[in-house]
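Re: beginner question about structure tokens

> Can someone show what the tokenized structure looks like for a real chain? I only ever see the sequence side.

Sure, here's an example I had lying around. Input first:
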Amino acid sequence: MNLVFYLPLALLGLLLLLNLFYQYRFWLKLFTYKDKQSAFNRQEQAVSVIIAARNEAENLARFLPAFLKQDYPDFEIIVVNDCSYDESADLLKEMQLLYPRLKVVTIEEQPKYPTGKKFALTLGIKSAENNLLLFSDADCYPASDQWIRQMQKQYIDKTEIVLGFGAYAREKTLLNLFIQYDTILTALHYFSHAIAGRAYMGVGRNLSYLRSLFFFHKGFVAHIKHPSGDDDLFVNQASTGKNVRVNLEPESFTISLPEKSWEAWSRQKTRHASTGKYYRRADRNWLSFFALTHLLLFPAFGYSLYVYLSQPVWLYISSAVFAFTLLHRWLFIGLAARKFGDTRLVWLLPVIDLYHPLLQIGWSIRALFSKSGW
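And the corresponding structure tokens:
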């Protein structure tokens, strides 16, 4: 036997070690992280909740009351009515009569000067009376009436950004299972990176940061030409190793309406994929490292099958290394699924996790050929 004979097993062993390195460097931190109760901010500072809404009358009618009925002493809800042409304006006027905490900022359509969500959020931030900002979307609702309190209490020491978990409502469809899996895998990444001191993104449906931080970084100017990224690109720009905290308490979660079609979800994920090239180089490198070590595992195993087909012992060893690598990955993702409250995924991981990378490749390719990422 020459050195070439051992090459497939060596490749599988190397990929196993690289996968373990990433998982223990980042993922493990999500499960060992514990908030110190004594360190929470108990001052209950005033909070401004900002929601940008464009033609969201139906969702505002359903979900906005859950924000307005939060059990918290001092907060305002700012809804930016972004050029809506449905019944949003009338609905918001009626709701203002019922809820004094509701403030409405209206943007009129300007054909020569298209706006977008970043412009809407900027106006909402400028109109905010408080330094502590909390963001969500019109198609979301908080998982509990303690959402504001849970997010606010994380502001201790030098904290300027708090990352929350944005779940999606569960449905009995194959698409929804993939959406749930993707949401949990994404959360596993950005929470663990943040805990490790390398925060690179957050989700706009459950995100908080200081108004002063926003203006210090000149808002969204650094990536204003890119239509998406009001959440992840701003966090990527403004985060440091010491100014970000996370909230993993179920009462701090928000729940959003999931996409109803594969095409709509694909467009959404393509937009997200198109923002990745604007991340800091180190963040891009870590995420690429993770993706490559997983994707290369399959051709490496295929190569081992080809070389060791007539060598049962070596075939068994290479198969065992391949299986252990996948099982170890599924263990972490399964634990994350349980942590975020979706145990259905635990038993379906072997199927979903094998197809999900193919979808990611498709979104990335689609983003490359899309001029705007939309």
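Each token stands for a local structural state, so reading them left to right follows the chain. The first helix runs from residue 3 to 32.
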